[in-house]
Amino acid sequence: MTPFIYITLAVFRPDPGYLEAQLQSLVAQEGVETHLVAVIADRVSGPLVARLCADLDLGLTLVSTDRNLDSVRAFEAGLARALALSEEQNRPDALFALSDQDDIWHPDRLARGVAALGDSPAMLAHSDARLVDAQGAVIHPSMFAYERRDRRPGLRGLLYRNTITGMTVLMRRAVLEIALPFPAQAGIHFYHDLWLGLVAEAAGGVVLIDAPLVDYRQHGANTVGAVSREPWRLPRFDKVWLRRRATSYALARYLANSTYLRMAEAVASGRLVDGSARIAPIRPYLRRLRGAGSFAADALRLTLRGQLTRARIAGSFAVVHFGRAVWALHRTLDEGLNPALARFDERLYSLSPGVAPRAVEPAPAPPTHPLKSYRELIDLRKSARWTPAFEAPCPAIVVLVPTLNPTEIFAGIVTALDIAIGLAERGLTVRLVATDLPMAAPAASRAFVLNRMSAAGQASGAAERISLHCGVQSASLPLHREDRFLATAWWTAHVADRLIRQHGFHHDRFHYLIQDFEPNFYAWGPEYADALASYGLNFAPIFNTTLLRDYFHQEGFGFAGRQTLAFHPAIDIDRYSWGQRRMATGPRRLALYGRPEVPRNMFATGLEVIARFIEAENLQPGQIELVSVGLKHGNVNMPNGLRLISLGKLPYEDYPQFLLDTDVGLSLMYSPHPSHPPIEMAASGVRVVTNSFGPKDLARLSPAILSAAPEVPALSAALSRAWHCAPVSAQERQIALGGLGLSPEAMIDALAAELGARLPQHERMVS
After folding, report:
1. 408 exposed, middle or buried (CB, 10 Å; 0-12, 13-18, 19+)?
2. Burial of 560 (C-beta count, 10 Å sphere; 0-12/13-18/19+)
3. Domains defined along the chain, listed by start
4. Which candidate in 149, 252, 602, 664 could, as Cys together with 159 as Cys, close a disulfide (CB 3.0–4.6 Å)?
5. In this structure, what DSSP letter does residue 66 have?
6. In which region does residue 154 sit, left (phi positive, over 0), alpha (psi from -120 to 50) or beta (all else)?
7. Each residue of 226-238: pLDDT tens digit?
8. CA distance 132 to 114
9. Would you say the pTM of this structure is higher than 0.90?
C-alpha cells in the first residue's frame, strides 16, 4: 500500500512566493499520498493557503484559531488535528510530517523517511538539510556540518543540544499519542521538534538519514535559523554564567521529568509494552541528590571526542546539579531535605520554562496494607474539580460534557454539542465544560465545535457566544449565579446538582439530556446505584426519542410524561434513501454492526445468530459475503468455510455507498434507545434485522426493518425471512422519524424559548 502521510504546516504571515514554492515541493513528493493540515496561526492567511492548495490539487484541512499562535502551539494544534483526522479517516498506519512555510523539500524527502522507518522499532526519522539563501542559492551543503551537530546524541544528549529539526521529521502516530498535549511552558523555552524527538527516542528510537532532504531557507524572517558554532572558548565563571547554565539545566530537567511521566502514562495505558521505554539515560535528572557524576562523565567523554561545546554544557549541568544537592543539604537541618529541594526547584523552574513539572521521585515502599484516603476509593466524577468564580459578565447555559477532545467525541457527546451550538445560534450564551478529561489542544477543540455550526450561525455571531473550559486542569471557572446547567451523562447530573446546592446558584433545577437508561451500562453496584440516583434529582428531562421516554414511563418514572420534551435522531434520511443500489450480481452481502467492546451491541449474540442462519440456509462462499462494521476486531471463521471480515469504522463519506452495496443487515442494541444503523440501513434499501426492547419496535418505521425478540432463535429466523424477502422498495426507503419525537431543530427551538424566558432580560439580548 502507498504510505499515507499527514503534513502539518504552521502559517504565520508567509511570503506568498516562498509558501507557493514549499507547497509545490509537497505536491512533488514521490511514492506517497499526502494530506496537508495547515494551522492559520496568524488568523488571516487561510484564504491564501486554500487558494494555493486548490491550484495545486493538494488535499487540505485548515485549522483556524481564535488568537494568534506561536510556532510551538501552532504545531501542537495542527498535530492534534492531524491525529484526529487519521482516526476519523480510519488510517491507523498513517505517518506524520512537519513542514515550515518557506523551505523546499526534495522529491524523495518523505519516501526516504518511510524507508528509514521501515520495519525498525524507530519512532521517528529525520535528515540533514542544505542551507540556502532567500533566492535558493546554496549557502552550505550540510546543516549538521555547519552547526557541528552530533549525529547520534542519544536521549540525554538531546537535552544537551537538540539535533532534530522539525521540517525534516517523519514519525509514527504513537509519537503523537504520547507527546500530545505538549508540556506547558511560559513563552517559548523549548521547540516542538525537541519534545517530539525526546518522546520518540524514549519510546523506540530515532534514526538519522545522513543526507540533505530539505533546502532550509535562511532569510530575515526565520523563526529559528541555522547558527554557525564558533570554536569553544573558556567561559567566565561568574554569576551571569551560573544563571545561564542554571536556566539551561532547569529546562533539561523539566523535559526529562516530562518525558519520564509520558512514558509511564503510555505504559499504563497500554500504548507501550512494559519495559520497552528507554528512560535510563534521563535518570540522573530525576534523582533527588545523586546524578552529578553522570553529567561529569559525559563531559569527559565528549571532551575526548572533541565535542567541546556539548562537553561544556554537560560539565555545567554537573556543577548545577551538584550545587543543588549541596544547597539543599545545607538547609536540611532548618527545613528538611524535601522542602529544601522543593524550594530550590521552585526558583530553578521559574528561570525556565516558567512552570514546574509533576514530581516523579519514586515513593518509599508502601506497607503491606497501606492507608488510603477515601478520595482514592470513591467516584470523583460526581463532583466538580473546579470552584465557580462568579466573575462572568452575564448568565449562560453551562453544558457539562465528559470531554471536548475531538478524538474522544462520539455520538452522545456530538448530540450534546449540537444542542449547545443550536442554543448559541438562537442568541443564548453557552459555556462548554469538559468534566472528565483535559483538553489536549484548546484550539483544536474549539475548531471542532465551530466546524459543526451552520453558516447562518457563523454569520449571526454565534461563535462568539460559545466558550470552552477545562474543568480538569482549571482550579476555577468563570460562572454567573444566574447560569443554568445542562447535564449530558449521569455523573454530570450529580455535578450540576452539587454545584447548584453548594454554591448558591439562583436556579435550583437543571436540564438533563437523557440518551439511554444508563444504570444498565453497569453490573449492580455503586455505578448502577449512582446512575439510578441521578433520576431522583431536581431536573427537567430532555429525551433522545419518544421510545426512550416511553421506556422510562413504563418503568414508573413520573418525569417521563407524554408532554416531556423528546426529539428524534438527527439522521439525514435523504443521504441514504436516494442512492442508486447496485445490480444483483455475485454473492449477496450481509453486514453486521459489530462492536465487541460495547456489551449492549450484543456482538457475541450477533455471531451466534449469523452462524445459525448460515447453517439453516446452508449458505456457501459463492452465495454470501460477511462483513462487520463499527469497531475493528479480528476476522471470524464461520460455518461452511465462510469468514466474517472486519472493516472497522468506515469513513463518513464512504458509508452511504457501502450500504447501497449491502443486501441484508444485522444491527443489535440491547437498550431502549434506537441506534442509528438499522434506520440508515433501511433507508439505503437494506433489509435489516434488529431486536426489540420494551416499547422499542423499529419495525414500525419501515417494513424494511424486521424486529425480533433479543434471542438467538428469534433473530436467526428473522434473518432468514429477510434473506428471502423481495428487494426493498423505494417507498419503504422513505422513513419518517416524526413518530420518535420533535425534530432536533424544533426541540432546540422549544428549549431555547424555555431557557431564554428564565434567564435575565439583559442576557437574552446578547447577540
Report:
1. middle
2. buried
3. 4-217 (3.90.550.10), 239-351 (no CATH), 380-567 (3.40.50.11090), 574-736 (3.40.50.2000)
4. 252
5. S
6. left
7. 544 445 455 555 6
8. 25
9. no
